[in-house]
Structure formats: structure tokens, C-alpha cells
Amino acid sequence: MSSGDNSGGLMSSAGLVRYFDSEDRNAIRINPKTVIAFCLLFGLLVQILTISVA
Amino acid sequence: MSWKEAAEPVLTRMPVVARPEGHVPFKRKLLWTAGVLGIYFFLTNITLFGLDAGGSDIFGQFRSILAGGQGSILQVGIGPIVTASIVLQLLGGANLLGLDTENDPRDQVLYQGLQKLLVVIVTIATAAPMVFTGNFLPASQSVGNALGIGVTGVQLVIFAQVFVGGILILFMDEIVSKWGVGSGVGLFIIAGVSQQLIGGMISWEALGASGFFASWYGILFGETTLGSTFTAEWFQNLLFPPGDLLALVTTLLIFGVVVYAESVRVEIPLSHSRVRGARGRFPVKLIYASVLPMILVRALQANIQFLGQIIYSQMGEAMPTILGVYADGQPVDGLFYYLAPIQARQDWMWFLGLTPAGIEPWQVGLRVAIDLIFMLVGGAIFAVFWVETTGMGPEATAKQIQNSGMQIPGFRRNPQVVEKVMERYIPQVTVIGGALVGLLAVMANMLGTIGNVSGTGLLLTVSITYKLYEEIAEEQMMEMHPMMRQMFGNE
Question: I need a labelling partner for B468 at 20 to 30 A (CA). Which of A51, B36, B318, B486 fits?
Fold first, then answer.
């Protein structure tokens, strides 16, 4: 295993958006589960709206 | 006061997905990745509320690399992320930002915030013309009447949904990057292209179009005839649909070339300065900057076409011919015709009568030439910027090698010396690799691929999958040997 190969440790495949380890204390942190739950509920809401109004 | 101080209060407060505390086991990572993928497919199948029937996809052929789905909540796909990335690459590559993302944690935070803010702005800028101009996302009159908000009200509701979808894609990407394997952007590209590729292989007539296997079943069992053996017609039917052997060969060729090119590298020998006998190699890969910069070039072309579509939807036939002449929503003459990349065989095979009537061979030739130049030069330029902004350049790698205690045998142990050696390889390899990938993408588009996935889509998919495989292998090794984690510097 060559040393320089991966020592960056920050880049992931197709990392168009780059995330670093450092974060500001003021930043609003969201739990990933909250995001997933929001996606599910949002999708369901739109579907229900479509069914009930159309 | 620089822009940094002014923007700091906003940029540092952008919401982020929380980082995992401590190590995430590999199985958990796979679960997160699969979960996000599931949600992604779920959302691409939810039609926007208030949408009327009809409407054309503004992304057109670019859809396969920009992911998402026409008319769904994920209408914009990864388009805004890619466009924001172009802006950042250009600003960062030209060093106009003045952010030191290598060393300064404060600048890293600002960079992350700026990145997110840009995506939000671009999402608005992309979604607004889609909803409010033209007929890309027509609002339903009946829904407007039923709710008593009129068509404008429905348009606002659709806009809100498209906007939320765009933001959700960004957060899903962040979840995969922080909690899963690879990145969300890569995952969504692979998902879309693979779906198309498998569809092109195994689809049958009842599902719409015959896939490759179905066509050959028909040929072998006499349902489809190719014409008399060894005539021109026979060859044509064999190479093009229904036989479509050319697409199969192109697809396999791209797979082969990308996997082969991943292993083509210049290896710079390294030895440890203290531990005798500890040797290593630093690989400078041929497609060093990987295929990612390609998506930026394609997205630039997509944005140019996007602009053309908007101008056309606003001006209609009054649009100057020198800018563009549109037929069935596609440019057939003018500037936007020549700037449109070759997406499929029917864009250039005039000798088979595939191009629309009225387009001369010299026009086709000019368009192919412009596309080639755009991709070759663009591929090289964005590859160079990519290497610079992601810390893969000579200076950054020299520092990494120095910090790991390695040196190039026969040279003094000094970052400047290592940098000199790196400068002999990295820029050249990057430019050649970028141009090569550009050429491959254009070629694949011209010859056609199975399932009509674009050349760039196929290149991206194969290369991202390869990287993902490497990453998974590395993860597994770290699971088995916790010591490795220290060596890789994770946690």
C-alpha cells in the first residue's frame, strides 16, 4: 500500500461536493435520520395531495 | 474588509448533516447508502403536485448524467450541484477565492458554506425558468380552479416542490458522503445509467422498445429478418438496429478502456527516510483527475442548451436565425445547433439518412468538430483545475509524501525537490488523461451505446463504480485490521 495513495482521506468518489472535517460551532446540525424521514413524508404528502385534489 | 468577513455569518450557519461520532461500521455504511438510494428512487417516482399532462424535458439527452426525473420531485437532479461545482472550480482554479482549503480550518468551513449557498442559488435559478417559462413543467388549470389559486398559484406550488427536491438531493449527497460509501452524486449517476443500461439489454416489446436480447431472440428465431447474407443491407441491419452490434461493441470497449486506463500509471518510487527497506510507490494515474471533470464540461454544454431553450420559449419564431432555429424543441440551425453536442447516431450519420432533412454534411462536420474541440480542450482544462482544487497537484502531493516520512530515492528529502519531480509528471498526465477521456466520450456518443446511455454517462458510471469498488475494498481491509485505520489517518 503506497503512502500517498490515500492520505488525503477527504475525497470520496465523485465528490463534486467537498466536505471537510472542520465545522463551525454555529452551524445547524441535522440528524441524517431526520433528512430521510423528511424525504419520505414529503414524498407521501405530495402523492396524497395529487390523489385527493386531482 | 474582504468578502470573507462579510459573508462569514451566513456561510458558517448553513445547515449541515451531523457527522458520525466515531467509527461507522462498514455494514452500517452500506445500509445508509442503500437507504438513500431507496429514497432517491422513491422520490423520482413521485410526480409533482399540480402538474398538467405534457411538458418536455428541458435537460433532454443530458438527463442521464444529471440524474433525477422529468416531472418528478427530483426534477433538477444533480444539475444545480454540478453547476455550482463548475463555478467553484473556475473561481478556485483561478485562485480568485483566496481560500486555503488545504490547511486553514476556517477557510474549509467557509468553502463548505459557500458551496451550499451556491447550490441553493443555482437550484432557484434552474427551477424558476423551468416552472415559469415555456412548457417544460405546465401547471394544471383544473388544480388551480379546484384550489382557487389560479395557474400562477399552482406554478408557485410546483416551484416550491422542485426547490425542496433540489435541496433534498444536496442533503442526501451529504448523508452518503459522511455516513455511507462513496458520494451521493456518484450514486445517483450510477443508478440512472445502470437502470438505462439494463433496460437496453433486457427490455422487450411489451415494455416499449425491444432491448438487445429481445432483438437477437427475434433475429435468431426468424421473427426479424436481416436481409440476404453479406449484402449492404445485411451489414447495416447487423451493425445498427435491429442487430445493433455496434452499440454492444462500443459499450464493451468503453468498459474495457476505462478499466484498463485506471491501471495505466507512472509510478514514482518512494523509500522511507528512517526505516530501511520500507518502500512504496506513488502512482500518477493516466486518468489522474478521473472522469469527473468531464461531467463539468458536459454540464456547461447542457447549460448553454438550457439557455437556448429558454430564449426559444420566450421569443418563439422571432428568435434570430443566427442564434438558433428550432424544430420539435430541438435546434436544427444557428449557434445553438453548432454548440449542441453529438448525442446519438442520428445527430451525424447523414450518409445513412439518419439526420433530419435539410442539414448539410458540412454542418454536421462543423458540429462534430466543435463538440470534439469543446470536449478535448474543456476536458483538459477542467482536469487541471480539478487537480489543483482537490489537493492532487504537485505541491500538495509533495507535502503529503514529506509528511508521511517518505522520500524519492536519489533525491534530497525536501518538499521542493519532490515537487520538482512531481511537476514533471502530474500536469502532463492530467492534460493527456483529460483530453483522452473527452475523446472517448465523444466517440461513444457518436457510435451509440446499449440503452442509449450517453458516452459520458457510461464513462462516469464505469469509473465511479471502479472507485467505489476500491473504496469498499479499503473499508473491508480497515474493518479486518483496525491498525490500518491509523495508517490511513482515519480517526
Answer: B486
The number of beta carbons lying within 10 Å of the beta carbon of residue B439 is 15
Please write the tens of the pLDDT for every residue from B184-237. 999 999 999 999 999 999 998 888 788 899 999 999 998 888 888 888 889 989
Interchain CB contact of A52 with B (< 8 Å): no
- The dihedral over CA atoms of B229, B232, B235, B238, expressed in degrees to the nearest 10, equals -90
Contacts of B351 by beta carbon, 8 Å cutoff, 6+ apart? none
Task: State the angle between helix axes of B79-93 and B361-389 in degrees (0 to 180), rounded to the nearest 10.
Answer: 70
* pTM of the complete model: 0.89
Strands B265-272 and B406-407: antiparallel
| Inter-residue contact B475 to B181 (CB < 8 Å) | yes
Residue of chain A nearest B461, judged by CA positions: A14
Q: Residue B178: which of A19, A27, A53 has the nearest Cβ?
A: A19
Provide the b/e sequence for B55-67 (b: ≥16 CB within 10 Å): bbbbbbbbbbbbb
Contact A2 B48 (CB under 8 A): no
Q: Per-residue confidence at A41, pLDDT binned at 50, 70, 90?
A: very high
Pairwise CA distance, residues A46 & A40, whole Å: 10
In angstroms, the CA B76 to CA B81 distance is 10
Whether residue A19 contacts residue B178, with contact meaning beta carbons closer than 8 Å, is answered with yes
Q: At what angle do helices B415-447 and B292-315 cross, to 10 degrees?
A: 50
Sign of CA dihedral B337, B342, B345, B351: positive
* Minimum CA–CA partner of A20 in chain B: B108
Residue B243 near residue B250, CB atoms below 8 Å: no
Distance from CA of A34 to the nearest CA of B (A): 9
Which residues have C-beta within 8 Å of that of residue A47, sequence separation ≥ 6?
B46
Are the beta carbons of B237 and B243 closer than 8 angstroms?
Answer: yes
Query: How much is the CA Rg of chain A, to the nearest whole Å?
Result: 19
Per-window interface: B 184-243 vs A, CB < 8 A: 185-186, 189
Tell me, what's the ipTM? Answer: 0.86
* B490/A9 Cα distance (integer angstroms): 7
Residues B232/B244, Cβ–Cβ less than 8 Å: no
Examine residue B331 and say whether the peptide bond preceding it is cis (omega within 30 degrees of 0).
no
Q: Where do we find the cell 380552479?
A: B145
**Sheet with strand B265-272: strands edge to edge:** B279-285, B265-272, B406-407
If you ran DSSP here, which 8-state letter would residue B342 be given?
Answer: P
What single string gives the DSSP state of each residue in B265-310? Answer: EEEEEEEESSSTT-EEEEEEETTTT-SHHHHHHHHHHHHHHHHHHH
Question: From residue B454, how far is each of B224, B238, B242 by CA, in Å?
Answer: 27, 21, 19
